[in-house]
């Protein structure tokens, strides 16, 4: 978190297109409305066609509460219905520990340690990389 | 003992901007009290869940924060208060999966697991106050298994 007097935030998270992948880098603390707008933007981007994967980098996110976790899970579920795979990358260890304790293990969400690994995961295609939810 | 300037506060919870203020305040207060990174993250996440409950289900309210000292242990008490419709059955609302609609049903029960002490005071028509305490180091009492 920044040390300035105002919460660090962005009104809109940019969605970049790299070939057939949408790349989203979330930084800092999000307004609830910004997270929902991101979900809409990614949905529109995937629906526009030609997108087979979505990478959401959350290495700059210090807190993932159940609201943001639900938005991430819904982005993944919505993209899957539109024939695109979503990988969440860069989750901080403290965030992972907290989500488990919160009871949110998000079994449907694919993850990678960083954006590069997420892109590699997507380029390998769907075969063999999915783990069946237990 | 270091000073605890800025740890005590009374913040409004009226909008999602206020939720960000709450998270930022709790993060800074916890850091100031010597909470480690994981402990900070847990407490800020719990505060975010509870502040969102105050906003969404209570129609808005306030959060008060106060530093605690017990021997050498230092802690932070956060109290979330609203004057909304209240919770008819607080014990049931703490059950995972229980939801009044819209969420994952993990907010209250999940928040309880992220803190050392948790209490809820609510009745229909009387509003809701949820108070949580977390300690920077080993808690003075053993933590309850949930």
User: What is the mean pLDDT of chain B?
Assistant: 85
**Discrete helix count of chain B:** 4
Give the SSE string of chain A. Answer: EEHEHEHEH
Biggest interface, CB < 8 A: A-B, 25 and 29 residues
Could you tell me how far the N terminus lies from the C terminus of chain A, measured between alpha carbons in angstroms? 35 Å
Which CATH first-tier class of chain A would you pick? Alpha Beta
Biggest sheet strand order of chain A reads 1-2-3-4-5
User: What share of residues are in beta strands of chain A?
Assistant: 15-25%
Distance N to C terminus of chain B: 33 Å
CATH architecture group name of chain B:
2-Layer Sandwich
Q: In total, how many domains does the architecture of chain B comprise? A: 1
Class by helix and strand content of chain A? alpha/beta
Oligomer: heterodimer
Main sheet specs of chain B:
5 strands, antiparallel
Shape of chain B: globular
Report the principal-axis shape of chain A.
globular
Q: Give the beta-strand count of chain A.
A: 5
The main pleated sheet of chain A reads as: 5 strands, mixed
SSE order of chain B? EHHEEHHEE
Within CATH, the superfamily of chain B carries the name Histidine kinase-like ATPase, C-terminal domain
Low-confidence stretches of chain A: 1-6, 127-134
What do these coordinates show?
The model of chain A is unreliable at about 1-5 and about 125-134 (pLDDT under 50). Chain A contains 4 helices and 5 strands; from the N terminus they run ββαβαβαβα. With about 130 residues, chain A is of the alpha/beta class. Chain A has a 5-stranded mixed sheet. Chain B has one domain (about 10-135): 2-Layer Sandwich (Heat Shock Protein 90). The radius of gyration of chain B is 15 Å and the shape is globular. Chain B is α+β, with helices and mostly antiparallel strands. In chain B, a hairpin with a 5-residue loop joins β4 (about 115-120) and β5 (about 130-135). Chain B contains 4 helices and 5 strands. The termini of chain B are far apart. Chain B has helices at about 15-30, 35-55, 90-95, 105-115; strands at about 10-15, 60-70, 75-80, 115-120, 130-135. The interface between A and B is medium-sized, with 25 and 29 residues. Chain A: Pfam families: STAS (PF01740).
């Amino acid at each position: 978190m920044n040390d300035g007097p105002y919460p660090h935030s962005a009104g809109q998270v940019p969605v970049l297109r790299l070939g057939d992948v949408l790349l989203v880098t979330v930084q800092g603390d999000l307004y609830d409305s910004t997270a929902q707008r991101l979900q809409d933007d990614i949905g529109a981007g995937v629906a526009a066609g030609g997108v087979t994967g979505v990478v959401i980098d959350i290495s700059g996110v210090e807190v993932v509460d159940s609201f943001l976790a639900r938005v991430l899970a819904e982005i993944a579920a919505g993209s899957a219905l539109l024939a695109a795979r979503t990988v969440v990358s860069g989750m901080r260890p403290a965030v992972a520990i907290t989500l488990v304790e919160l009871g949110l293990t998000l079994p449907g969400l694919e993850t990678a340690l960083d954006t590069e690994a997420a892109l590699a995961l997507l380029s390998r295609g769907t075969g063999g990389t999915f783990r069946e939810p237990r | 003992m270091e000073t605890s300037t800025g740890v005590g506060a009374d913040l409004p919870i009226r909008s999602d901007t206020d939720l960000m203020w709450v998270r930022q305040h709790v993060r800074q207060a916890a850091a100031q009290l010597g909470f480690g990174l994981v402990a900070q993250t847990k407490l800020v996440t719990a505060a975010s869940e509870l502040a969102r409950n105050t906003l969404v289900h209570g129609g808005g309210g306030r959060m008060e924060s106060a530093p605690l000292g017990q021997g050498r242990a230092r802690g932070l008490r956060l109290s979330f208060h609203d004057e909304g419709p209240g919770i008819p059955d607080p014990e049931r609302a703490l059950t995972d999966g229980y939801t009044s609609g819209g969420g994952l049903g993990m907010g209250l029960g999940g928040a309880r697991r992220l803190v050392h002490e948790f209490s809820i005071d609510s009745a229909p028509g009387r509003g809701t106050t949820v108070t949580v305490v977390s300690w920077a180091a080993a808690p003075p009492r053993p933590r309850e298994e949930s």
